[in-house]
Specification:
The protein has about 450 residues and is mainly α. The chain is built from 17 helices and eight strands. It is flat, with a radius of gyration of 25 Å.
Length: about 450
């Protein structure tokens, strides 16, 4: 603030998001280790910057391979653009039998019957895959399966809630999935829920968390993809979230109260009432300052007189300006259908964990916003894409590519190095075995 400039290179902390592509040492020097895309971050005094690296494969692929590849939507365009940038040849289309099994498991969680297999394989209609997708999305099994998926996000847990509460929570959620309720509306209903745990199932989200801090952490993780728990005791080490940010977010839940004998699940199975008390506050644990409700970033929404503070929080969370909200649910859906999220883990959308294809994630989120958070439409768009219908079997040029295996191996190498304290005998004696096992599996 006083205009002083100082070199803090030697104080900064450096990390790599994918050490199989790029490694960075304590002095900020980057070494390219392999092919693909990675990123490195530099962190100093709550300031974080990121630099991305692309390391294309050495072999060249004719441009017409990408120009002539089928493109049904922005999904295909952005995936092909990324593949071309990295010199990766697209996989061939999956066979009808592969596609049939895949789309059944992904959309309704079951395998097709023998009759359905025969009918599909004998069908000569060029649009039979599109028709099959529309049929599957309209089935009751789709409702059951995706209710199960979103039950994980909303923490419907039979070990923490008694049967009547679990039934109410699940029934509420299944009704929302059946009605294809927009995701932003569903989330607002959860975040602002009040009433009986047996009559308004959404209130059980708060029955699982007994303090403002726990409520805010789970809301941030489930609906924003942000893990803020580190900031409870100190400023977040890998994000720009401070302790004050953490407790200011928790202040939105300071007035959430309960009455009834179901307050200590699972000991009591009685009904619990979630309500908004007349008062409640959250203090900074170090300064003792009473903190006003404030979101993690962006404009602080105004509170009307006597309004439940969670209403303002819900408006901020689900606004189009909050890109985390749309990106985290788009990423979850992509992961369910494609086997891996554009961001991994799927609920860890921090600056220091960039997506493997940033433009694609942004466009998927934008599509969700354009379609008013209609999740079924996004599922349909992904399954209709040419990319979704490609074979999962590796070709001769990418048979050795395995991002997860590479990450695991690098992590293993680092752990061995730390344990051995530089003892070369440990590395020489153990690493070849790890490599052989990895190749064999």
């Amino acid at each position: 603030s006083d205009g002083r400039v100082e070199d803090v290179t030697h104080w900064a902390k450096y990390t790599s998001t994918n050490e199989s592509v790029a490694r960075i040492d304590d002095h900020g020097r980057v070494s390219i280790m392999g092919h693909g895309e990675g990123a490195v971050t530099a962190w100093f005094s709550q300031k974080i910057v990121i630099a991305r690296f692309s390391s294309p494969h050495e072999y060249k692929i004719p441009a017409e391979v990408f120009a002539e590849a089928p493109q049904r939507s922005f999904i295909d365009q952005l995936v092909l653009k990324q593949l071309q940038r990295l010199n990766l040849r697209p996989s061939p289309p999956a066979s009808d039998t592969e596609f049939l099994r895949r789309v059944f498991v992904d959309t309704i969680g079951t395998l097709p019957t023998a009759e359905e297999v025969t009918s599909f394989l004998n069908d000569q209609d060029v649009s039979k895959r599109d028709k099959l997708i529309d049929d599957l999305l309209s089935r009751p099994e789709f409702v059951d399966y995706w209710t199960y998926k979103w039950s994980d996000v909303l923490l419907i847990n039979g070990q923490r809630l008694r049967p009547a509460a679990v039934k109410a929570y699940y029934t509420w959620l299944r009704g929302k999935v059946k009605e294809n309720t927009p995701w932003d509306q569903l989330v607002r209903e959860v975040v602002t829920s009040t009433g009986s745990s047996h009559k308004n199932g959404a209130t059980n989200f708060f029955a699982l968390h007994q303090d403002p801090e726990g409520m805010s952490e789970n809301v941030a993780q489930a609906f924003l993809g942000l893990s803020i728990g580190c900031a409870k005791c100190h400023n977040h080490p890998y994000e720009t979230i401070t302790q004050e940010d953490y407790y200011s977010l928790a202040a939105y839940f300071a007035r959430v109260g309960r009455k009834g004998t179901g307050i200590s699940p699972p000991i009591s199975g009685s009904e619990e009432i979630v309500l908004i008390a007349d008062k409640g506050e959250v203090k900074h644990p170090i300064t003792g300052q009473v903190l006003d409700p404030r979101p993690l970033f962006g404009q602080t929404p105004e509170l009307s007189s006597g309004e439940d503070p969670r209403q303002a929080l819900a408006r901020w969370m689900t606004s189009d300006d909050n890109l985390f909200f749309s990106q985290v649910i788009a990423n979850r859906i992509w992961a369910e259908l494609m086997g891996r999220g554009l961001v991994e883990p799927v609920d860890d959308l921090r600056i220091t964990n960039p997506p493997s294809n940033g433009p694609l994630l942004k466009e998927l989120a934008a599509e969700l916003r354009r379609e008013k958070y209609n999740l079924k439409k996004l599922i349909r768009a992904i399954t209709l894409s040419h990319v979704y219908g490609l074979s999962s079997l590796p070709g001769e040029r990418n048979v050795a590519d395995d991002a997860e295996a590479n990450r695991s191996l690098i992590k293993h190498d680092n752990q061995l190095t730390r344990r051995s304290r530089g003892d070369v005998r440990v590395l020489v004696g153990v690493l070849p075995v790890a490599h052989v096992l990895l190749l064999r599996t």
